[in-house]
Structures are given as C-alpha cells and as structure tokens.
Amino acid sequence: MTNENNTLANKRHTLAHLLAAAVIKKYPDVKLTLGPAVDNGFYYDIDFGDTKPEEKDLKDFQKNMRKMLSSWKEFTHQEVSIDEARELYSDNQYKLELVNEIAERGEKITLYTCGDFTDLCRGGHTDNPAEEINGKAFELSHMAGAYWRGDEKNQMLTRIYGIAFDTPEELAEYKEMLEEAKKRDHRKLGQELDLFTFSPLVGSGLPLFTPKGTLIRDLVIDKIQNIQKEYGYQKVTIPHITKKDLYEKSGHWEKFGDELFKVKGQSDTEFVMKPMNCPHHTQIFAGKPRSYKDLPIRFMESTMVYRDEQAGELLGLSRVRSISQDDGHVFCTPEQMKQEIKNIVNVIKEFYTSLEMLEDGKYWVSLSVRSEEKADKYLGDTSVWDKAEAVLEEVAKEENLPYKRVEGEAAFYGPKLDFQFKDALGREWQLGTAQLDFVMPARFELEYTDNDGEKKTPVMIHRAVAGSLERFMAVTIEHFAGAFPFWLSPVQVVVMPVNDEAHSEYANDVLQQLTNAGIRAEYADATESLGKRMRNAKKEKVPYIFVLGDKEKNSNTITAEGRNGEKLEDLSVADFMEKVTK
Amino acid sequence: MTNENNTLANKRHTLAHLLAAAVIKKYPDVKLTLGPAVDNGFYYDIDFGDTKPEEKDLKDFQKNMRKMLSSWKEFTHQEVSIDEARELYSDNQYKLELVNEIAERGEKITLYTCGDFTDLCRGGHTDNPAEEINGKAFELSHMAGAYWRGDEKNQMLTRIYGIAFDTPEELAEYKEMLEEAKKRDHRKLGQELDLFTFSPLVGSGLPLFTPKGTLIRDLVIDKIQNIQKEYGYQKVTIPHITKKDLYEKSGHWEKFGDELFKVKGQSDTEFVMKPMNCPHHTQIFAGKPRSYKDLPIRFMESTMVYRDEQAGELLGLSRVRSISQDDGHVFCTPEQMKQEIKNIVNVIKEFYTSLEMLEDGKYWVSLSVRSEEKADKYLGDTSVWDKAEAVLEEVAKEENLPYKRVEGEAAFYGPKLDFQFKDALGREWQLGTAQLDFVMPARFELEYTDNDGEKKTPVMIHRAVAGSLERFMAVTIEHFAGAFPFWLSPVQVVVMPVNDEAHSEYANDVLQQLTNAGIRAEYADATESLGKRMRNAKKEKVPYIFVLGDKEKNSNTITAEGRNGEKLEDLSVADFMEKVTK
Prior knowledge:
The structure is a homodimer.
Chain A (H helix, E strand, L loop, with lengths): L7 H19 L4 E2 L4 E2 L2 E7 L7 H15 L6 E5 L1 H7 L4 H12 L4 E6 L2 E4 L8 H4 L5 E10 L8 E9 L3 H17 L1 H7 L3 E2 L10 E2 L1 H19 L4 E2 L5 E3 L1 H6 L1 H5 L5 E3 L5 E4 L4 H8 L11 E10 L15 E11 L4 H17 L9 E7 L12 H17 L4 E5 L8 E7 L5 E10 L2 H4 L4 E2 L5 E2 L2 E10 H11 L13 E5 L2 H17 L4 E3 L6 H10 L4 E5 L1 H6 L2 E5 L4 E5 L1 H9 L1
Parallel strand pairs in A: 11-15, 17-18, 24-25, 24-26
Antiparallel strand pairs in A: 1-3, 2-3, 3-8, 4-5, 5-6, 7-8, 9-10, 12-14, 13-14, 15-16, 16-23, 17-19, 19-20, 20-23, 21-22, 26-27, 27-28
Helix pairs in contact in A: 1-2, 7-15, 8-12, 12-13
C-alpha cells in the first residue's frame, strides 16, 4: 500500500468525517453541511436544529471519535446519479444545495464511506485512518456560530473546531504556542502596558494612543525618518480627505470605490477619506515645474489613512480602520531607480537591525514579479517590466538578501521587494516593502525636463519600512512579549530608593542624571514596599530597575536589575550610560 | 451747527449717496439697491440692466462725485407713506422689497435728499458734505459682482467699492498698507517661498505642504511641544473620525451637527470627521481609573481637524477645511486650576517671545467673561464661574498681562484668556488661548478618586498656543513678509563659492561645519553668476548668505550678508554660530 495519501491535510479531512460520525451517533437528527481541513486542523458546520450542543458534548464527541477511529480501516466510495443524491439528501437542504451545484458544474457526485459513516465528498482521505492517524494527535478545541456559506442572510450553524497534527508532540507544541500567543496577545499587553485604549463612543477599529503608546509610535517614526534623512528624504504634509476626482484620475475609484469612506458636507462636492497617500504626493510633485537636476525627489510622511474594514474583521491593532503609515515616495529617472531601491533596502535593514529582527533565518525577501499566465493583468510595457524585475533582482543579489522570486505577486503597476519577518512564535508578517510604479506617474501626467530639454515621465517608487504603525505595534508587542528593545521602551529605567528618608535625595540625583542624559526614567518612591514596586516595574517590562540604598549612596554607584535577570553592580551612572548606549 | 454727525462712518455713508447720484447722472435707467458704509469706505450695489460698466466708468463716476460734492451743502429728509413709497419705486423691485419690509416692521419710511439726489434711507449723514468731506480723501477702488442680499439665487448686481478717510494723508497711508499687504499676501509669498500648494484634484481649502512648508510646521510644533514638556505635557494620538455617538454625548451634535463632515462606509454606522479634539481626549482620560495622585494629566497633540467651510469663504491658508491644531487639554482638580493656567500663559509667552511678537503694544489679552444680560446662555454653577473668572484675573495680574475684561466673550462652558496679537500692518489676530471648561468633564462622566476616597469630576482646560497652524502660517508669513526669524527659516544660510574651481572645496567644508552644527544650510554652486545666486537667496528671504572667495579661504573665515543688510566679516564659523544662537 502506498502512503501518498497519508498527508496531514488528508488526515485532517478524515478527522472532519470522523467528527461528523461522532455527532450523528449522539444526535441522529442534525443536518451535516460542510467539513474541510484547515491550517491547524479541521472543522464541521452542522445544523443542530433546536438542540444546543454544550461543552460536555464536545468531550463526548472527542471520546467517541477516538473510540470509532480503531474501526475506521478503509475508505470506499461510490458514484451516484443526481436523482439518487437528491433522494438521499431530500431532508437536508444544505447537502441538496451542494448536490445541485455539483450537477450544474457537470461533475461526478461521489459518496465516501468509512466505518458505518457515509458523506457527500470529493475524496482526499488517508487510506487507513485507524493505522495512520494517531488518536492522541488531535482534539476538539471549541465551538462557534457560523452562517451557512459565511453569508449572514443564511441560517446560523454550529461550527465545531478540531486541531490535529501528525504526532502528539506536535499537537502539544502547537498548544503551547497558542498558550504563549495568548499571553503575548497585544490587546492584553497593550492594556497592561497602558499603550492604547478603545472607546465605544469613538468606535471599533479606531484606537486612541495613550502617552506611552504615542511615545513608541514617535520613536519608531523618528528612527525611520532619521535614517531616511541621510538618503535625502524630506517630510511633506497632506490632508486626510480629497475630492473623489483625485481617485478617478488615479484609477482607484474604479477599482476600489466601494471600499472607500465617503465624506459629505453641506455642498455637493464629493469627498473621500484617503486610503493611501501616493495620489496626494503626486500633486506636490506636480505643484511646480521639475528639472532632471531636482531628481530624485523623495517625500516621506507619517500619516493616517482610512479603510472601511468590516466590523467583524477588526482585531485590536492588527486590523484597524485608522491606519498610520510611515509612507514614502520617490520620483526619479529610470537611471536612478536602482540606487534608490538600494537606499530603501538599506533603510529597512538598518531599522530592523536596531530591533534585532534581521538575523539569519528570521526573515526572507519576496521578489514579487509577474506571472506569465496572467500577463494581461499587468499595466505597462513588457520591456520596462523586464528591466525593473532585473533591477530588483540585482539589488537583492548585491545586498545579499535571502530572496525568492515569487511569480504572480507583483502589483498591477510594477514588481516589488517584500520583506517577510518571522516572529518569536514562528508566525510570518510582511512589514517593509519597495515597489516600482510605472502607472501612476503617467496617469497624473507627471513630468520633468530632462537634460536634452525633453519632457519625460518620472519613475515612482512606493516604500514602507514599518508598514502600518498599528500592525507594527501589534507584531512587535507580541514578538517581544512587551519587552521592547531598550531604545523603544517607553520607560527605560525605574529608580527606587530603598527608603524615602535615607535615600530619596541620592535617588533623585541619579534620576536627574539619567534624565539629563536623555534616558526615560521614572521614580518609584517608598510609599509602597520595595517588593511591590519591583513587581510593578517588571510587569511593565521596564529594561532596568535601579535599587538605591546605603551601599549605593555611600559609594556613589548604582545597582541595577535587568528584566532579563542580569544584575549590574558598582557602576557609576556614566558606566551605565556607556553600557546601554553601546 | 454741532458737528456730532461728522463721523467717518457718516462721511462714508454720505459718499455712498454721492456715488449713486454720479451713477444715475450717467446711467439714468439703473436700479439702485443698497449702499452702506463699511470698514474702509463704502459701496453701492446697483442693477445696471444690460449695461456693463467698465473701468473708464469708475473714473467718470469719481470725477463727477468730486464735482457734485461742492454743491452738496445740506441733507433734507421727509417721511412718506407706504403708498407714496411704493409709487415712487414701482419700477425698482429691490427698493420695493425694502419698503415692504420697513412697513412690515412698522417703522417710518424716510427719503433723504442732498443736491438733486434723493434716496430711500434711514439717515446718518454728515450735515454739510461740501464742507466736511475732503474730495481728495476718497476714491473709487474697484467693482465686483454681488448677489442681491448675498443670496446666489437672486439677481447678480454690480457692487462699486470706494475707500474713504478723513484726510488725504490717511487715505494714502491706507493705500500704502494695502499695497504692502498685497506684497506680503501669504498666497503669493507661499508660492514664491515654495511652502505649500493646492491641487484642483484634491480640492480647495485642502493645502498640500511641501518640504519647506512642512519644516516650518514641524519647527513650530517642536518648539511648542518642547516648551510644554517642561510643564509635564505628554503627546497622545487619536484618529480623525469617530462615531457620531461621541458628539451626541458631548452636545456638539445638537449644536453644530449640520456643520460637520459626515463619513459613510458600507455599514450603517454613522461616522463624523472630528472638528475638534477634546471629546476624543476625554476618552483617553476615561480609558483607565484615575486617582488625585495622577492629576494634573496634560495631553498635547498636533493633529488635523475638519470643518465644512463654504467654498466661497476659503482663502489661502487663512481659511481652510483641514485645520492643523496644536491642541492640548489639562485635566486637574479645582485647586490645581490656577497653576495650570499660569503654566499655559508661560508657554504662550515663551513661544511668542521667540518670535519677537510679545513686545509692549504688540499684543493684549482678552479676559473673556460672562455678560450679565445673557446669564442663561452659560452652563454651570454661578459660584464656580465667579471663582474661575477670579482665578483667570489673578493670573492675568500676577503675570503682568496687558488685559481687558471683555463681557459676553466667554465660551458657554467657561471663561477664557485670549491672546490678541497686532501684526506689522496693525491687523489684530487671536492666536493663543486658555479656556476653563466645567461642562465637558461632567457630560462625559469623567472622574478621579480624591484623597478622601470620593469620586470627583476634574476641571478641564483647553489651550492653544499657535492656534491653527495654517492660520498661524498665514499670519506670520504676512507679519514677517516671509522673512521668518532665524530659528524658523526653512533655509538659514546659503553658502556660495565665488568660483567653483578655486573655492568649492573650502565652501563645502564650511557647509559641512554648518550642517554639523545643526544649521539648515544650502549650497549654491557657481554655474550661475554670483549676482543671480544672491538675488535668488534674497528672494527666498534666507537670513544669511555666505560669499566665500580667496580672502575667506586664506584666512579660514567667512563673510556673511544678512537679509537686513547687516554685513559680518572676518568671522570663524564658530563665531557665527555663537552670534546666531545667542
């Protein structure tokens, strides 16, 4: 017997059948609908009628699945006619709908049977579940409501979720990761660290950033803008709305018009909230005549864009309606393209190096190019595309980027380099990007006078370093579990006198020295016990706690405890400064 | 004969009659409508029918006015019945409308005659125009279209404007001021200095700030925020939209709902663009429990608000739809109120001192308090108001502010201190403000736990230093005629080698020294003549031009020309730095 069907996806799909069989055993009158394999396991959507399955049922289903598994030794299948299928599912409107759709597409209708359970199915199971599936490597995790086919106009069903892996060890590892992710959940940590809040009066997806959250945002923006200044980027400022004419010209209105927030005042003018900044930035470029001597022109701006995300899809800072972009656009000649892309790559490298997120194996770069199949979806000249893709690949090679060509991932307006980061839990996030654009400059009729006196169209490069600041914060809070690198910590040091009377003068002196040196230091006086103060500071993941008592006062030194357990003793404040700025 | 009627307003009103008489003389068939005195003179709105008056006509009217003036020695008036008036104006629908309105109000209908010209009028003229009005102290300035009664649904009339003063000298002075204002017009200078631009695709009232304009904005914001940091202000960040629920709670929806920009996505949720930041900031305060130990809490944020200004009222940066506020809100106990107001006054003082706009006679402060007549329009307890007004007055006294109590100028939610500045042309602008608010904290049910364990409502203080950055830029561009103080100049020094071959190395070295010292310096190489380069730099109002030739190179010094004509010689770069940072 070959084992080519023994994939994890097939195991998961098989387990969905097994789940359905266990449910039917306890509740013979439920109506089964659909039960696919998913990323971490499987689920089955079931219409329980008037029954309300409970937590206890989940346990029973799982127990029964394990029991039945030993008798599931082989899948058989048979083709049935449409009439047979309709007869079979005459009292299940969901399966009936599926049967009719299969018939309409002119495909075969197949039933798969294992043990004494039969289901409408296209196949894709393990050959011998009893032997190939480890009963300890799966479990039912939870239930939730789900509309039939995801449409809220349809019947609400019960979705039962299971997680499944090849081995019990992998299952345990996954559960541990989930547990860790829960602890690191940025919504929970964000509140504990007092970084942001939401107000029901303001609305979901619209975070309000507290002083500490704003400080982190500003530190990120300042870091990126300072790095970029070296490469000649200049800040510009645009409003958050525009007449819709801007997007009619850019083409976004036709493509994304429905998804934009519309703005209406008392006049007839139709305004729109900007979902991106590039069209506005073209208008600053177009604001005066440009010569080849002025290029490259590099604009940067940290500003909010607005997207009409569905309420159900909003999630903490990961998915919001007000999106802060650290945006940037370069207008240059075709000859300058390569150097500008290189500069952007270097900005991204320098920024993520400061976060220690750029180590080997922690990231890769997608060289996102056209797919040959769908050549017609890309705008612009083939030879220009060839050139542009070649330039990006040259940069990727010369900068030693761990890159892969990914076909079909280019934007319709040009190819790009997308930086993909793996976080501490192994999850992958796209953050930085550099994208060539041959379409927008032409649409907006941007031009510069070249040294031969001719009017030419500049190339436009879109780039993001942190991407959306909200998503960046969500990712980094979870990646660092709230323990941000020293430079990014809202509070870097908490200074604690052992007792107020004897040590507050010295402790305040140390605090002042730190503040003067540009360290963000807080003071915790001794109205609370040292133990409690230390627990508070640790909960806030403050990088260093200074505990100052007689010993420190008499020797004019500090004793510092790092949040990673590191202990620094007999240091002067200057020594400490030298250590942390290194 | 008493001269109590010999006011400038009466002269101007008289001149409106004289203008009408001159027009009638040349075009007997026109229909007169309304002709009042205004701030700088007078105008008359006239229906010229099919005739189109031209520039030449203006000259004729003016000539005739002066000629007729000598015969205008006395005004007489008579009361007429409504029927007589209707008969008199039977072929002038405008006057007829006025007559009917006067009759409806039950007032007398009066006709005033001087020379051989009679007009429907309430009076208010000089007794003897020929003697009291100086024929050289007025002139007709221009014509423009104006709708009857300002309503665009009505007939378009021709408005003829005149300017008039007591003496020819005052007229000349005013015209000179106008000429100067024209030269300083921030829309013209803004373009010349490349500070901002508008795009017809984005829309009017929505400025796009170029790198130099953004730099000025950022310098202003940084300066204010740095001063404020000393007083414990912390930056926060809010989105630009909110559910309308926020403004229903604050009361703004009821008061200003029509004037807000409405935002609509695909869902039913009704969003609004924020026209102010205070309600959002209350929600950050409300985001976690607060103790008296946490107070005062001081939020600051530089952010754009949006107001649906009518297209016809938009003007450069003076009146825009996207308004950048350097906003700030303090939440404190009643006991802390006075010190917080003092701090705000000191921030405003320090900021405007850096602009040399706080000299004696250049500003005054309005202590804006309740009016006794309309006591019911103010919300909150009388005793609280008394206390608050007293606190503001104490601060004004202790800080030696040149203040005046202005009754009836308080906001409905509390009294305030408004800083009024006079610009170089003598025009007055309100920029900084500190406002006490007893209403909003209660509406949002904000609270803190006091040291007695009781829940109490904090006092809220609204404050602005620069006010709207757009209006601040419009005012300062015109006040300084583009020649910003050194710290606020986008480019502070232009370095020019006399010729490239001999001096570029030295000039670049100087440029580098300046840049390293934090000076914003640009380089102008010798591809253009020294004269042309200097003219360009002067047009851009750059504070200092360094011209570097043999003499400077050999002695390792600089020669600098200040934009005010000042000449600095034989200075080292260090000497220069010392001079300008002083």
